[in-house]
Amino acid sequence: MRYVVRADGDVSESFASGHGVLAGDSASPILWIIFMCDLIFPDDPDDVSLNNVPVSHLEQADDIVLFSLKLRILEAWCAINFLCINVKKSSGMLFGPIPRSRPVLTLLGSPLAWTESYTYVGVTLQSTHRNIFARHYEAKARKGRSVAHVTLGLKSMVGRLPPREGTHLYMARVDPHLIHACDIIPDVDLSLLAQLEAVQVTFLRRLLGLSACSMRAFLSTETGLEPLQYRRIRLLLRFLKYALASTDHLIYHAVQSSLALARAHCPCWISDVVWVASSMATSLQSQLNTSPLALLPNGRPAASPVLRLREYLQVPIPEHRLALTRLVLADHCLAEVRLRWAERYRASVPRDSRLCRFCEECVETPVHALFECVADEQLCVLRREFLADMLFHMPSLREDTVGMSNIEALRHLLQLRKTLPLLARFTHAVLKVFAIRAPALFLNGTLAV
Ligand SMILES: [Zn+2]
C-alpha cells in the first residue's frame, strides 16, 4: 500500500508501507491528530467548563470522550471521513445522582449501553462509588501484588534476592503499578491507599526477610525507597508544578478552575491535595527517634541520610545477611524482642523480665548476646574468634573503640564496611546458639506470666 500526506494544499511524495499506520512511533499520533483536527463541536451549555474554557470532548488517538450530547455530530463527521464507530465498544456513564430511569441514547441507530465503570487511558473510573478512582486502586493493587509475587518467586530459581537487586526489580516492575495515575489522584481515602501500601510493605518485608511485626519505617530507611504515600504525593506535586506552567494546555485551566473552587471553600481537587499534604504521617526520622526498636539505626552519624540502602544489606552470604538484618532491625529471636509481643496463652512480658536464657540475670539484648553473656562456653568461643578476626583485619579497632559503651561499639562495627561480613557471620552463629534454647520464661515447661 502507498500513502501520501497532504497539508495546507501541499502533497508529499508517495511512499510505501507494508505495515499500515505504525503503532508506537512519533509520527502516527501526529498524523492522527492532523486527521482529526476538523472534528469540531459547537459550544454547548452542557459542556464542561474549565476556567471559562468549554471542553466538549477529549481524544487519545481514536479513543474519544464526549462530555455532552453530540452523538449526531460525531456520526456525521465519521460518515464523511470514512470512519466507522464501534457501537459495541462505546458506552455512556452518568456521574452524580443516578436517575431511576436512565435516558436512552442511540449511536448509529443502536441504543448506547450504560456502564458504571470504564477504563480510559489506563485509568479506571467508577460512577457509583464516592471515590471515582476506587476501582483503579483495586485494579492496580491486584496487578502490583501479582507482579510482586512473581518477582519474589525468583527465589525458587536463583535463591534469596539480594536487597540491592530486589529494590531495582521492585522499582522496575512493581512500583509503576503502585504509582499509576498518582499525579492526578490525591490519596484522600486512606483505606484505598492502604491496598497499594500493603503491596509495597509485603514486598520489602519479604525481600529483607522481616516478619509482619517489624517496624514499617525500617522498610524505607534501610532500603532507600520512599514510603508509597510520600512518593505518590511528591509525584502529584511535581505534576501540579508542571500543570501551572503549561498555560497552553487544558490541564492549566483545570487547575485554575479547581483553585477558584478552593478559594471559595468548595470541595475540589486542590482542596483534596491540600488535605493530603497536610495530613501526612510523622517523618521517618521522628518515628525512629521515638521507637525503642530503633536503638541500632538511631546511632548512625548525623550526616547519614534517612533514606539509603544500608551497607549491611550488601553482605554477600544470604544467611549471614539475614541474621544481621534481623538483629539491627529488632526482628530477631532474642527475648528483648520476642517476649515484647503477646502470643496465644502469653501476655507481653515487661522489658525488665525479658531475661537472658543462659545467665538469667540481664535483659537478653543484642549487645548482651554478642558481647556480654559469659554463661555459655560456645558463646565465649565464638566471641574470641570474632574479636581475633576483627583485630587481624582492623588492628586499630581497640584504639577506635576506647571509651565506647558496648552499644556504641556495635554501632561503630555496623559502619565498618570492610568487616561487615565478619560481623554478619558472628551474628548468625550467636543467634543460632540462642535459637536452639527456649527463652528463660519457658524453662522447665512453666510460664512465668
Ligand atoms: Zn546472658
Nutshell version of this structure?
The protein is mainly alpha-helical and 449 residues long. It is 45% helix and 8% strand.
Rg, Cα atoms, Å: 31 Å
| Strand coverage percent | 5-15%
Walk across the major sheet and give the strand order.
Answer: 1-4
Ligand inventory: zinc ion
Tell me roughly what share of residues is in helical segments.
40-55%
Stretches where pLDDT falls below 50 for ≥5 residues?
443-449
Distance N to C terminus: 85 Å
Summed up, the domain count is 3
Give me the count of strands.
Answer: 14
Based on helices, strands and strand pairing, what is the structural class?
Answer: mainly alpha
Mean pLDDT: 90
**How would a textbook summarize the main sheet?**
2 strands, antiparallel
How many DSSP H or I helices?
Answer: 18
Gross morphology: elongated
Keywords:
two-stranded antiparallel sheet; 449 residues; single chain; binds zinc ion
Describe the protein.
The structure is a single chain. The chain is mainly alpha-helical and 449 residues long. The chain folds into three domains: 2-126, no CATH class; 136-299, no CATH class; 314-445, no CATH class. Helix content is 45%, strand content 8%. It has helices at residues 27-36, 71-80, 134-152, 155-158, 163-178, 190-208, 216-221, 228-245, 250-263, 269-278, 284-290, 318-328, 335-338, 366-372, 377-393, 397-400, 406-414, 420-435, and strands at residues 2-3, 6-7, 10-11, 15-16, 48-50, 53-55, 57-60, 63-66, 91-92, 106-107, 110-111, 113-114, 117-120, 123-126. The protein has a two-stranded antiparallel ribbon. Strand 5 (48-50) and strand 6 (53-55) form a beta hairpin. Helix 3 runs parallel beside helix 6. The protein is elongated. It binds zinc ion. Zinc ion is lined by residues 356, 358-359, 362, 368, 373, 375.
